[in-house]
Design brief:
About 45% of the residues lie in helices and about 15% in strands. The chain contains 10 helices and 11 strands. The longest helix has 19 residues. The protein binds 6-O-phosphono-beta-D-glucopyranose.
Length: about 250
């Protein structure tokens, strides 16, 4: 029975990989309950990333409850590692527990690496971005981000993320009427994968993903299937980690 299940997951991974045009897809097996999906995906991803990391790596992370689970489930290393962990974008207006800064520092401590933080206030005005960018301390982080070789990011449904980021009801309505279904790194995408809105922030831009060796998307929840389809693209992503139910839902929608 076990072998049959493993085979089933392998087939599902292949199907999803072909459907999304990605190089690699990994699926956490089981008909997981909503509340355990994130935990299981977090545990799986933490182990995978920890095994992948080597001295000299620069790992970039985003925020979110999924990434927070990855950080939480990561085991402590007995020795230190020459790995830097950096948040991908600053000030996306989330609770501190699930902010990219917190996740970067937690992971860095667990692996015995170092971290840098992006101290950027939330919802900065467009006209202030250039000034912030000119700050030497910010410049130093942006230089590190340019050399990053692994990125781990989550995906949110557009509506949930807009609300979590305190957009006004009017703004949320406008965003949705512009077709936004998914969000990642502060970018909102429509069903066709086109960008419909970008939050003002400082850090990685979508184009930068092409320069990063390994871009990993971590997202699981059947309710996020549409969002995942809108965000994930072979142009930017190398690996998708999701769970069985979400994988099936994506295949159903595609
Ligand atoms: C946010 C990231 O913190 O978390 C987003 O900035 C991401 O880019 C989101 O989409 C995912 O959140 P969650 O809680 O569903 O993992």
């Amino acid at each position: 029975k076990y072998i049959k299940e493993v085979k089933g997951i392998k087939i599902l991974e292949e199907n999803l990989k072909d459907c999304l045009g990605l190089k690699e897809v990994l699926i956490v097996p089981g008909n997981l309950e909503h509340s355990t999906i994130k935990q299981e995906i977090g545990r799986f991803t933490a182990q995978l990333v920890k095994n992948m990391l080597k001295d000299g790596d620069i790992l970039v992370v985003t925020g979110g409850s999924t990434l927070a689970q990855v950080a939480r489930s990561m085991r402590f290393n007995d020795k230190s590692m020459n790995v830097k962990v950096v948040p991908g974008r600053g000030g996306l207006g989330e609770e501190v527990e699930i902010q990219a800064n917190t996740i970067a520092s937690t992971i860095a401590k667990k692996i015995g690496g170092s971290y840098k933080l992006l101290h950027i206030p939330d919802s900065i005005k467009e006209e202030n971005v250039d000034r912030i960018l000119a700050e030497p301390s910010i410049q130093r982080i942006l230089e590190i981000l340019k050399k990053a070789n692994i990125l781990l990011h989550g995906v949110g449904s557009a509506e949930e993320m807009a609300c979590r980021r305190d957009m006004s009801p009017g703004q949320v309505k406008e965003l949705l009427s512009n077709g936004a279904v998914g969000e990642a790194l502060g970018y909102y995408f429509n069903e066709k994968g086109e960008i419909v809105y970008i939050t003002t922030s400082v850090g990685l831009h979508l184009e930068d993903l092409q320069q990063i060796d390994k871009v990993i998307v971590v997202a699981g929840d059947p309710a996020k299937a549409r969002a995942i389809i809108s965000v994930v693209s072979p142009k930017f992503h190398d690996l998708l980690i999701t769970d069985e139910l979400t994988a099936k839902e994506i295949l159903k929608l595609k």
